[in-house]
Amino acid sequence: MVGLDGPESWARLLASEADEWGQHLRAEAHAAVLTAAPMLTAAEVARALGSDAKNPRALVRTLRRRSVLVGVPRPSSRAYAYPAFQIDPSARRVHPVVQAVNEAMHAGWDPWGVASWWTSPHGALTPGLAPMHLVGTRRATDLFVMAGVVSGSAAARAGRDDQ
User: From the centroid of its chain, how far is CA 123?
Assistant: First the structure.
């Protein structure tokens, strides 16, 4: 092997291969998030929220930065993708449970991590189901416990208060 004449050379080679592997795993994880749920553009989110703002993308960007919505950057683009389950189209708002969980999990700081949590199967659910599948259901308050936002008893009280 040419150029691998000492420990430093081997260390550089291993670091390079680890970096390539990390990039590969990150790309696979991002692709999994982007295909797990229908995605909306910023303009579609603004329309779904009933916004008549002159710059609807600025409104959605503010919601994303404040962790109200989780949005992930699309590969090879400056645009963001927003999982559609976050929006309650009949009420023209972000589902309150989604907003609370996004804020608690700091979606603006870790959008890929939070989006992955929402869209990946969770051990507390029926096999194959992800937290996003509880949004808009009677079990939506379970999301608070699953996300570590509140204890089970507080979630149960919140569920009774909502009915």
Answer: 17
Distant-in-sequence, close-in-space partners of 27: CB < 8 Å, separation ≥ 6? 75
Going from the C-alpha of 20 to that of each of 6, 14, 25, 30, 133, the distances in angstroms are 22, 10, 9, 15, 33
Q: Exposed (0-12), middle (13-18) or buried (19+): which is 88, by Cβ within 10 Å?
A: middle
Cα-Cα end-to-end distance for the chain:
70
Q: What are the boundaries of each domain within the chain?
A: 1-36, 37-162
Return d(Cα 5, Cα 41) in angstroms, integer.
Answer: 51
Instruction: Give residue 132's identity as a one-letter amino acid code.
Output: M
> Do 94 and 49 form a contact (C-beta atoms < 8 A)?
yes
**What does each of the 163 residues of the chain score in pLDDT, given as a tens digit?**
456 676 776 666 565 555 665 565 667 777 788 888 999 999 999 999 999 888 888 999 999 999 999 999 988 788 999 999 999 999 999 999 999 999 999 999 999 999 999 999 988 888 889 999 999 999 998 998 888 876 544 445 545 444 4
